[in-house]
Each structure stands twice: as C-alpha cells, then as structure tokens.
Design brief:
The complex is a heterodimer. Chain A is mainly alpha-helical. Chain A folds into 2 domains: 105 residues, no CATH class; 69 residues, no CATH class. Chain A contains 8 helices and no strands. In chain A, helix 1 packs parallel to helix 5, helix 3 packs antiparallel against helix 4 and helix 4 packs antiparallel against helix 5. The radius of gyration of chain A is 21 Å and the shape is flat. In chain B, helix 1 packs across helix 2. Helices cover 77% and strands 0% of the residues of chain B. Chain B is mostly helical. Chain B is built from 7 helices and no strands. In chain B, 54% of the residues are buried. Chain B has a domain of 99 residues. The chains are: A mainly alpha, B mainly alpha. The interface between A and B is large, with 98 and 107 residues.
C-alpha cells in the first residue's frame, strides 16, 4: 500500500456509508461481487475514502481467505475505518457496510424461502424449483470454468489446469476430504511445482 | 420428494458450529463444502432439496452462500435457526479475514505464499466443477428430461463462461424459459 489516505469521518459519513450499502443490497443479484464497480465508484472515485491499491487488495484477500467472498465488503470498510483513525473505527467500518449490505437481501430471501416452503405444492412453485435446476447446475459448472480460466492460458499454465481437472475427478468420484486436496494444492504451489 | 430418512441438526449451537466449520473450509467457494458436508456426510438435505435451496439462493439478491445458510438454518429452527446458521457463516471468518488483512501487507510478495495461493485457487476451481457434475445427476428425475436439460444448460454455460453475460439476464431469461416449460408439463 504505497499511497496512504488519512481522513476523518463524522457520524454523517458513517450514515452515508450505511445508506450506500443499503441501496446496493437488493441490486446484488448473482452475489455481492456484481456490485463491485459501483463500490469502486463510490469509495475510491467519489469519496476518496480508499486508495486504488487498498481497494484491489481487499478483494484479493477476501477471495483467498476461507469463508464467503462477501467478506470483502467488511475488509473495504475496515480499511476506510483504519484510514480515518484506529482499531475502533476499523471495526465500525467492517460492521456497518456488512449490516447495510445484508439486512435487505437476507430479509427478502428469508421471506421468499418461507413463502416458497409453505406453498411448495403450488404448480408455479414446483415449476420454479424444477425449472431452475438445469440452469443452476450449468451455472455452477460455468463458475468453475471461470475460476479455472482466471489462472491463465491452458497451454502455458497447464499444470494448474491439470490440478483443477484431477481435483474435479477426485471430488466427483470419491469421498476424500476437501481439505486434503486444498492442502495438496497449497504444498504443490509452495514448492514451485505449479 | 424422496423417502430417505433425514438427519437434522441437534440444536442452534450445532447449526452455528457446523456452519462455522463449513465456512472455514471454503476457500474460493463455500457451496462445494456445503454440498459435501450437509448433503453427503450429515444428510440434513437430499440432493434435490439442496438444488432447490440453491436455486432460490441464486435468484435472490445478496451473497448466495449467505442466502443458502439462512434457508438451511430456517428449515429446522425457523428464524432462530436461520440467524444461527448466518452467524456461523460470518462471525469467525470475519475475524479471520481481518487478521489476514493485517498479515497480508508483510507476506503478500513472498513467492512461496503466492505459489501456495495459486495452488489452492486451482483446487477451488475443481471443487466447484465437481459439485456441478454431482448435482447434474439429479436432473435424471427432472420432468423436462435429460436432453432438454442439456439443451437449456449449454447456452447457460456458454453465455456465462465465455460470453460473460450478466448473471441476472441468464437467470431471468433462460431460467424463465425453463420454468415455463416445466409449468406446462406439470399436471395442474
């Protein structure tokens, strides 16, 4: 993080931060990651609360860390908080955007799921669940493909692609624990095999 | 849908701890771990139920795995279960990611660390692919029939993986088409 940002946030700024995420929440169809461009516009370009490198590294760390990727929102806010003071505002910065991002979407999802469960015999509800199945399966495979292609060209980085292919086969066909494979991937990478 | 005997979480604490452990194993994609642990090992859900919940989690706004944890928790203990699962999914990983952010500045440029992360990324991609392949087996019982499922699935895969269509269009376009086709096949 070469450039440093220092600022002082007032309570009105925290409210604005909360409102910003509140307004993004219901737009995040397909996951929080689809609202990243808008967050970048707001946090980096408009408010200058984060540096460019803080923004990108927050997303990279959350992707590499265990747990849901949505935690990148907590990291972005954490860095905003750190830029404006100490640990306490860092924690405030981590929690406020998460709350704003999750409150509307989780409420809606919970109510929709409850409604769907109560009306599961309705023809429309059954049609929705059965009809979405092939689409959702194809989406999972597409997501796996996108993650694979993010690591480079098959010709050049064939070892990474091979590792992905072998992992796919092992998980698909055996009961081996996922953590063994992750550990094997980490070790192979650590010792420069990949 | 199927007559298999269901296991279920013992308590709210069981839900919280289970989801914490799931989240901590999820590098790159928690959904693969949820499917493996909750469907195949603990048998809290059948493959069909998992796919149903995941469909709803996808179509709703917000992070998919967060929605998924909410729904699975809600299946057993209502709102309290939903909140316990949600808290499990987020609390400990949040603390961990903040600690990692503090460490990151010091070790990010270390080549061994970067290599290990690349290796884990390649494995994570394989986990998601395998989850998709496993759930594809459920389509055998779909009223659309396997050929039509494949016909609908291929443009979805190509559109998202190669043409980078926005997810919302795929879900609303192809999803609506698929649902309409099933609707017409189901007896009123």
């Amino acid at each position: 993080m070469n450039e440093t940002v220092s600022l002082s946030l007032h309570w009105a700024d925290w409210v604005a931060l909360f409102m910003h995420y509140l307004s993004l929440s219901l737009l995040a169809i397909g996951g929080a990651i689809s609202t990243v461009p808008e967050m970048h516009r707001y946090l980096v370009e408009q408010q200058h609360w984060l540096s460019e490198s803080q923004f990108t590294s927050s997303i990279a760390i959350a992707q590499a860390a265990p747990g849901p990727n949505v935690l990148f929102i907590a990291l972005l806010g954490w860095n905003v908080g750190i830029n404006s003071g100490g640990l306490l505002s860092g924690l405030l910065g981590a929690l406020i955007p998460m709350l704003g991002m999750l409150l509307p979407s989780t409420t809606l999802s919970y109510l929709a799921a409850r409604w769907g469960h109560r009306n599961r015999e309705l023809r429309a509800v059954r049609a929705f669940k059965l009809g979405m199945a092939p689409i959702v399966v194809a989406l999972l495979i597409a997501t796996g493909w996108i993650l694979s292609s993010a690591q480079g060209e098959p010709g050049e980085d064939w070892r990474l692609w091979l590792l992905t292919a072998v992992t796919t086969l092992i998980i698909w066909r055996s009961k081996l624990h996922l953590l063994w494979l992750l550990a094997a991937g980490a070790l192979l990478g650590w010792f420069g095999v990949l | 849908m199927s007559g298999e005997a269901h296991a279920r979480p013992d308590s709210l604490r069981d839900l919280f701890v289970s989801f914490t452990l799931l989240a901590l194993q999820g590098f790159g994609g928690v959904v693969a771990v949820v499917q493996r642990e909750l469907v195949e090992k603990k048998r809290w859900l059948t493959q069909e139920e998992f796919l149903e919940d995941w469909s709803v989690a996808q179509i709703m706004p917000g992070p998919n795995v967060v929605n998924l944890s909410l729904m699975i928790g809600g299946r057993y203990f209502g709102l309290r279960g939903a909140l316990a699962a949600l808290a499990g999914m987020l609390t400990v990983p949040l603390v961990l990611v903040l600690l990692l952010a503090v460490l990151y500045a010091q070790y990010a440029s270390h080549p061994d660390v970067a290599g290990a992360l690349r290796g884990m990324g390649a494995v994570a991609a394989g986990l998601i692919l395998a989850t998709g392949l496993k759930l594809a087996a459920v389509l055998k019982n779909n009223p659309l029939g396997v050929p039509l499922c494949v016909v609908l699935g291929i443009p979805c895969f190509v559109g998202v993986a190669f043409l980078r269509w926005p997810l919302a269009y795929v879900l609303l376009g192809l999803g609506a088409l698929a649902c309409t086709l099933v609707y017409r096949k189901l007896k009123p």
